[in-house]
User: Fold this.
Amino acid sequence: MKRMWKALSRLILAASLLMGCTARVEERIGASPPVEDIPLPTPALQGTMSLEETLALRHSVRSFTGDPLTLVEIGQLLWAAQGITRDWGGRTAPSAGALYPLEVYVATAEGLYHYMPQGHKVRVESTADLREALWTAGLKQDAIRQAPAVFVITAVYARTESKYGARAERYVELEAGHAAQNLLLQAVALGLGGVPIGAFHDDQVQSALSLPSDHAPLYLIPVGHPQE
Ligand SMILES: Cc1cc2nc3c(=O)[nH]c(=O)nc-3n(C[C@H](O)[C@H](O)[C@H](O)COP(=O)(O)O)c2cc1C
Assistant:
């Protein structure tokens, strides 16, 4: 009888532990915010403007109408910056050692989106309009507050440092230039305009967007319909 009672109490203990564990796992799952990905429209591989015309027309645009960008336009611009164009993962912009240190975000009135080249989609990072905070971080340059979309090119230096050590700093920043120029030229080809902005407080951009600590902001690129 005593032995049976002991076995029963062990069973009860095991069951309550198991239930506790399950509750803790549920708590953990419930605590993390849901990840929402938005698929982007398939990027166009043909346009109406030649590369030569696009180059000739490019200039920095800092004044925009109030018209928002469409999802097609945002998708095309993100693809131009970092889209995958090769079966093995090669992208629209070259990358030292194909290590791809760049992470691209876009801030609009609807929120902050993080581009995922794999799957050509964006991850919703915030549903708040963070452009005003970006404007403050960007020395109150009006293009940032006026543009319907502010693209933010950030870099994870460690990816390139893993192979190139101290040389990585140069490589990563050259790559940001490649991606930025692709995006700016794509904007022109879509009848849009933009400006590459390097003058901003890095730490303020990082905190305005709640970026991961290793995503270093290198460029802000406001894009919109030119007001000229
Ligand atoms: C690295 C870099 C940083 C820049 N930073 C800013 C900036 O903070 N604000 C701005 O209005 N333009 C910025 N520009 C844009 C330049 O002012 C612009 O390219 C230059 O005046 C030439 O004009 P264009 O782009 O119309 O040919 C930057 C350009 C580069 C390449």
Notes: The two ends are 93 Å apart (CA to CA). Residues 37-224 form a domain with the NADH Oxidase fold (CATH 3.40.109.10).
